[in-house]
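User: Hello, can you help with two protein structures?

Assistant: Certainly.
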Amino acid sequence: MKSRNVVRLFFSTLLIGGFSTLITSFFVKTEAYIKFMNPFDWFEVFGLVIFFLALGFVFSLISQMGYFAYLTVNQFALGLFRSIWPLLQVVLIVFALFDLVYFRYRSVEDGSLGIFIITAIALLVYGLVIAAIKAKETNRKAFIPALFFMIVVTSIEWVPGLRTSGGDYAWLMIVPLIICNTYQLLILHRLTKDKK
């Protein structure tokens, strides 16, 4: 990939992460904005906007590090495990989904098991859709790696958000992570395509 495309991918993903977090903050942290609406304090609202935009940039950087780490690990694992690497990825996908439900449920004191199951199912369904799109746009062998990235790597990237008290920052983090991961996964083959 040309350096121009690397820079383009970096900054476009950074902006997507920033603005998706900002938009998510309007829904997740509504009370923070309402506090400064009556009377309207433009300085405080501007500060909130800058804060959530910068937070989104951080989430975008986490997503980008996860993506390039996965590309490296995937190449290494293909050489090391060869034909069983797809099967190992499926096992890790199942474990990650189990982890999202069981270990998270055990770590909270007053959580409902249902919400953890719904979260894991939603991530699985979304991952299946994105993996199917990636496989259709590239080749069938890309399905399992794309699904692995969308579920396992996203879950790993989400760990800091899951460790916070309360669910606000968990939701603030997962939305930009999913959007940035989806964007990177679906744009990379377009950027690396040779233009004749």
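That covers the first. Now for the second protein you mentioned:
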Amino acid sequence: MTQLELTERSVITKAKDGSTATDAPSWTAEIDNPYLHGVYSPTTVETQSDSLEVVEGEIPADLFGAYVRNGPNPVFKPRFNHHPFDGDGMIYSVHFKDGKASYRNRWVQTDAHIKEAEEGKAVWPGVMGPFDFDLPGFPIKDTSNTDVMYFNGHIMSLWYNAGIPYKLDTETLETQGREDLNGQLKRALSAHSKVDLEKDELIFFDYFDEFPHMSYGIGDKDGNIIHEEEIELPGPRLPHDIGVTPNYVILHDCPFFHDTELLERTNKRVMTFHRDVPTRFGVQPRYGKGSEVKWFDCEPCYILHVVNCWEEGDWVIQVGCRSTNPMPKADPSEGDLSHMLAYMRLEANMYVWKFNMKTGEVIEHDIDTLNSEFCRSNPLYMGYKSRYSYNQYIMTREDDQVNTLAFGALLKYDTENGDCQRYDYGKGVFGSEAPFCPKRGATRNDPEDAGYLITFTTDTNDWSSYCLIFDAKDITSGPVCKLRLPHRLPFGFHSNWIRGEDIWK
């Protein structure tokens, strides 16, 4: 029996405005959790379309490649309280070639996904626990639902909590098995590994409860690990991203972590933000020994995503989105879900850190205070000075939203002067992360914003979903092309652009 047969029954899921989605699995009606309803309601649809309908404008002739997005899409009713990080990974793609666009979506066939399909039910608990250390692999479900990128001839999907990377075909999205870096991968990979397009290298890291608590490594274009080092931390941490320059990697040690003794006693991981502990950033020689890392103390915060890093003389610069309140106060009226809902509210803003490698001096300050995250930049500039960041505006209670993570607008930041362009998706319409898509044949000699931004939107007024294409120079004028997608897309996490030269070789 296939996953589609196992979930063929549907239920009508109502959004706040009364609109409905009819392709959600029936068990969602039994669970009072906002991350299983409305725009977050999972879909039972796996489909493809060889030619998408152009609703407005036209597909740019120099758009060559694929926009791919990952996201949570649970198949079975969860054993315990559901967290959005628990949903089975599903990849959605639009491929652009010869002025045409095709679409398909597929579940990532992880070990856990396959096992649960065989059992016909959920087997693993999720990140809210309780952790089950008797289960194979991880004590919670490794869903591979978080990030997606191109490396070593295939698409690679990754998980928020540092998990097993999976390989997918660049055109069909069919899962090809685990990515083990030619048998050399010792542990897991964090969701936010980085691909250096100039050096054709994969920069990855992992973190764990055992000493020394962190490692990072580098893989070459053939998937061989050419450098790997352990990094000593004061204790278990939960870093989410890594910075990269030609000569350094920037490692994160944030005061937002769990108590391992409490985890052992309760089988639940409870995160605490320690406001009296500085955030440390470790600037590590890219190919150096772990003992060479130089730590810089900064104001207490948590950082999910880096925009870009680069070197200026003795300085290493990091631009990203900073959160000074990664665990907002929970609302007791929300019951067992209160802490998860508080954590997922996401309060962050654009920020810059500067580290002097000779003097140890730190300079840090806001770029803007607007609540935004899921920041992206031109991938051709990774490690080199860049100016623009393309973010999602994170909606708040003031936007009449429930305590859920929702993207209400696309933003283009000029990080040099703080200027911001904005395009609002519209009332009841929610977007996806929008990576920068260089024009066909582009190099770093071209203007930094000479390219496109692509996002998926879902309109809860009628449950239609679209693919929007923007000219990155001017997003305020709206999309230059709007494509109708063949079915409703649930909320997703990260997305990426794969160059056509890497797909159709």
